[in-house]
Automatic annotation (TrEMBL):
SUPFAM superfamilies with a match to the protein in the record: Band 7/SPFH domain
Coiled-coil zones: none
Keyword Transcription belongs to the record: no
Protein name per Swiss-Prot or TrEMBL: Regulator of protease activity HflC (Stomatin/prohibitin superfamily)
Gene Ontology biological process terms, A to Z: proteolysis
Keywords: Hydrolase, Protease
Source species, domain of life: Bacteria
InterPro entries: Band_7 (IPR001107), Band_7/SPFH_dom_sf (IPR036013)
A Pfam family hit: Band_7
Protease among keywords: yes
Gene Ontology terms for molecular function: peptidase activity
Domain Band: 34-200
């Protein structure tokens, strides 16, 4: 808005570069243009201020499709005042000289004009489309129709307005209808999700079964190897017993043979000793053959004495010595 400074008997107005100010003094044009700054008398001046920058107007339009379903169109229209002098004659943009504010609501009047015009074009487009087509193609069709209709609207041109851009964000039905339309898709997605869950569970069960089978096979293989180990241990023990028995047999045979050889050697030695003793005895007997009995007795006593134990003291009585000497001198 323009800045109006109050002084005694006069006022000073200063506008911005985005506002167009029109000043009439006593019915005649005194100032017009953007970025104006001038003095004026409030009793003789008429002021109008028009914004010339681009203005955004959000629109929420309602329409009905060919199958009688209500939809909502969310759009935005960008416009500007292209001919401020013309617009000032069609819409009330006059300012209060004391406050610098609009006496009316010109922008709301322009917004109403644009909304009603866009609403008519939206109704024309969506009335000939079924709901599904309106939801899929309605954004592009309504945007094109709103743009073409506002550009061709003579009332807007006669008001000094120009369309900059028109955008349609969404075409949506009522929440209940939208939920009903999304139900098949949600059901399909839920079915796919359930199928994926079932497949994942089946895969998990299959993996568990494979793991159980692997564990069972491992246990069977372990039992088989334990059986082989027990059998091998038994065979090793039997082989050890057999080897020990064979070793014992060999050792027994060797000892028997050794004992037999020792017995044979002892027998041979005894035979040789007997033969030697017999030969010695025969030689001794041959040596004493023809020897007198007294000599033989003496030899016998000597030999007997050699076989007697040691005698510490020998007592000879006269009788024994006399008898022995008598037998020695006897012829």
């Amino acid at each position: 808005m323009a800045d109006i400074t109050r002084y005694p008997f006069a006022r000073h107005l200063r506008s911005t570069p985005t506002t167009h100010v029109i000043h009439h003094r006593r019915g005649k044009l005194a100032h017009t243009g953007t970025g104006q700054a001038f003095w004026f008398r409030p009793l003789s001046a008429t002021l109008s201020e028009l914004p010339v920058d681009d203005r955004e107007l959000p629109l929420l339009l309602h329409a009905r499709t060919a199958d009688f379903v209500d939809v909502t169109v969310q759009a935005t229209v960008t416009f500007r005042i292209a001919d401020p002098d013309l617009a000032a004659t069609r819409v009330d943009f006059s300012l209060d000289p004391a406050t610098g504010r609009w006496r009316a609501a010109p922008l709301q009047q322009i917004a109403g004009l644009l909304t009603e015009t866009a609403q008519q074009h939206v109704l024309d487009v969506l009335a000939g489309l079924p709901l599904l087509q309106a939801l899929t193609d309605g954004v592009a069709l309504t945007r094109e129709r709103i743009t073409a209709g506002l550009l061709a609207d003579s009332r807007l041109a006669h008001t000094g307005l120009a369309l900059v851009d028109a955008r349609v964000v969404a075409v949506r039905p009522d929440p209940d209808v939208e939920k009903a339309l999304g139900t098949p898709t949600r059901e399909r997605l839920q079915t796919e999700a359930d199928g994926a869950t079932a497949q994942r569970r089946a895969l998990a069960v299959e993996r568990e079964r494979a793991i159980s089978e692997n564990e069972l096979q491992s246990k069977i293989e372990l039992a088989r190897r334990e059986e082989q180990l027990v059998a091998q241990r038994g065979a090793n023990q039997r082989r050890g017993v057999e080897d020990a028995a064979a070793a014992d047999a060999v050792r027994t045979t060797a000892e028997a043979e050794r004992e037999e050889r020792l017995a044979q050697a002892h027998a041979a030695a005894r035979r040789a000793q007997g033969e030697a003793d017999a030969a010695a005895e025969a030689a001794r007997l041959a040596a004493v053959a023809g020897t007198p009995p007294e000599v033989l007795l003496t030899l016998a006593l000597r030999e007997f004495a050699g076989q007697l134990p040691d005698v510490g003291t020998l007592v000879l009585t006269p009788d024994v010595v006399t008898g022995a000497l008598a037998r020695l001198v006897r012829p």
